[in-house]
Amino acid sequence: MRSSPKLYPMFTPPVTPSSSRSTPSRRGLHTPKSSGALHTPKGASALHTPETKSPSSWKKLKDKDGMEQMVLDLGQKYFGAVNCDICGMVYTATHPEDEANHAKFHRKYISCTKFNGWKNEEVMEDYPDGRIIMIGPEAPKYAHKKVEEVRALVDRELGFVEGNSLSGKDLCKTFLFISSDKKIAGCLIAEGITKGYRVIPDKEQPKAEDTDSESQKAWCCETDPSPAVCGVSRIWVAGPMRRKKIASRLMEALRYHYTFGSVLRMEDIAFSDPTPDGKLFATAFSKTPQFLVYKYT
């Protein structure tokens, strides 16, 4: 006679305290002969299962399309997207490739902004927290090499196209703000121009709380050019050194030292296609929303 095949369940339902049938330990339990029920010591539960906490917890990250991604949180200090306070790079923590790219860029940033000083510096302004030096066309080669390193860094942060050259190299002058801890905290590159185009302001004046949205709006310029003398090609301040009037001090140094023996008026200065933050700065420094621009797209 053939025995019937044995069937085994493929899926086991989750065990809950109410449906658990696991056999408790015999220690401390008494089974009377007259009853098949289990008796536990006073104050204990026969079906009590101690709760075990997992060393890791799960966090759900919901995507816009409704899908969910489970991310394991092991108590790491940094999690997800991280913005470096020093170099300003945004990278994904715990991602090997991102961390390697950040480490490479961070080293380059530190090397580029480090400045021990030169023997023959053209110091334009001196402050308690630093100084402003100028590098002109007649500066030594090592000075121009340093300017090119800083310019490449500035172009990356401002979003300039790689290889974007200056039109008036013969009149190009670079102003660097050197902090008291021997670091390049700000940079302004100016070039000679002959004309600019005035920005057409919006009819409605933005409110104080709408400053961020205002900076993102598209803006237009007049088609008729206005005469100009100096073009601010790039102006940049290191992230940790912002909100310290460094950009304003660079602009003042430009006004007083770009042309020997004369001071530039704001009507003589134009900005090269400023970023949203640059537009806000130009408006505040010029004290008018109708400042001049050039090379705008």
Give the distance, in angstroms, between the N- and C-terminal Cα atoms.
Answer: 92 Å
Give the radius of gyration: 34 Å
CATH class of the domain at 123-203 and 219-294: Alpha Beta
Which shape, going by the Cα principal axes? Answer: elongated
**SSE pattern, N- to C-terminal:** EEEEHEEHEEEHEEEHEHE
Sketch the major β-sheet: 10 strands, mixed
Domain N-acetyltransferase ESCO zinc-finger: 69-108
GO molecular function, one term: zinc ion binding
Region (Disordered): 1-60
Biased composition (Low complexity): 17-26
What does this structure look like?
Keywords: Acyltransferase, Cell cycle, Metal-binding, Nucleus, Transferase, Zinc, Zinc-finger. By secondary structure, the chain is an alpha+beta fold. The protein is built from five helices and 14 strands. 22% of the residues lie in helices and 24% in strands. Strands 5, 6, 7, 8, 9, 10, 11, 12, 13 and 14 form a ten-stranded mixed β-sheet that branches. It has a two-stranded antiparallel sheet with strand order 1-2. Strand 12 (230-237), helix 4 (246-257) and strand 13 form a beta-alpha-beta unit. It has helices at residues 96-113, 141-158, 211-215, 246-257, 276-286, and strands at 57-62, 68-73, 81-83, 90-92, 123-127, 130-135, 173-179, 184-192, 195-200, 220-221, 226-227, 230-237, 269-272, 292-294. Among the domains are: 76-113, no CATH class; 123-203 and 219-294, Gcn5-related N-acetyltransferase (GNAT) (Aminopeptidase), CATH 3.40.630. It is elongated, with a radius of gyration of 34 Å.
